[in-house]
Amino acid sequence: MRIIIIGAGIGGTSIGIALKRQGHEVVIYDQMRENKPVGAALSLWSNGIKVLNWLGLTEEVATLGGQLETMAYREGLSGRTMCEFSLEPVTALTGQRSYPVARTDLQALLMETFGLDDIHLNSKMVGIEDDGTTVTASFADGSTDSADLLIGADGARSLTRAYVTTGTEEEGRERSYSGYTNFNGLIPANESIGPKDQWTTYVTEGKRAAVMPVAGDRFYFWFDIPQPDGLPYERGDMTPLREAFGHWAPGVQELLDTIDPDVSLNRVEIWDLDPVQHWVRGRVAILGDAAHNTAPDIGQGACSALEDSFVLATILATTTISVEDSLRRYEKLRAERAGDLVLRARKRGHETHAFDKAATDAWYESLEGADGVGIIRGIVGNIEGSPINLGPL
Length: 393
What we know:
alpha/beta; FAD/NAD(P)-binding domain
């Protein structure tokens, strides 16, 4: 088949690689001008890594990944360690080490593996037509392209999702603000902030400041600030971070002092989308954030997109009634689990950001002296049920 993919992010490139390797003719279009994804890095838990292994990228991804051995929570004002524990049980239970990875590095790897000659940047899709045998995408420059199948991996504001949900109860569904803004970026690893092999998170006041290792002796850092959406902000301005965290522990002050806003500082308002049940329409399907835009609170956004790719590619390789039939099977296999992860992330964000102060205070109390068993149970619980596991863990 000839297949058009809209979106050259993690989901679009991973499904593109899989479908090319099955012998399909695949082309990707993306409206971005160059590889500049939103967000500095992401946590890839074992379910996401396993899909990348399945794509033949085991060694490459291990090279990009930070060596994450332990997790620790520290009290935000004093810097006192509340709990610290090994993440080895997650590896043992799931059969695969997890890696934090710089998003630009991973996306560059996936784009190069797919083939840069078949990726058309600066190409904004503006319309879709499906005549029952061919799908045609129209672009802002007046050009068109046609194929047997179109996959919309075009992100949170997906035009493909708008097309797929037309005429359903989900038509026009808008994203909702999660109640907090995230600042993130990359800095040189610095043990005054936290050990180089540890995910260290400072918590108090419904806010979080964290670092985790990525390749190149770097830390991925992030801060969460509960606040209204739409606040004015000038790119690179450190003032909101200084105001929110300037009274926190010495390790957090070291983190603030290490950031070079001209090199790496992103500000992202966190929004999500109520679970969507309609993922397909005729010969058109959605994938990744287009299908399940989620908050990052359980670290499963990219992993869920990779699961989509695994399932869709497997369905297309193993079912032969029709394109439409295969896509309906993909939707049936993915919508429930992906939607559940969206709701889990929303619930987690509500707990950690003091939207319910009693719940957040109870969470802080639970961290004091914790042995990590409950936290690991939560991490593995998000991985259980992944289609890449091919059965129970």
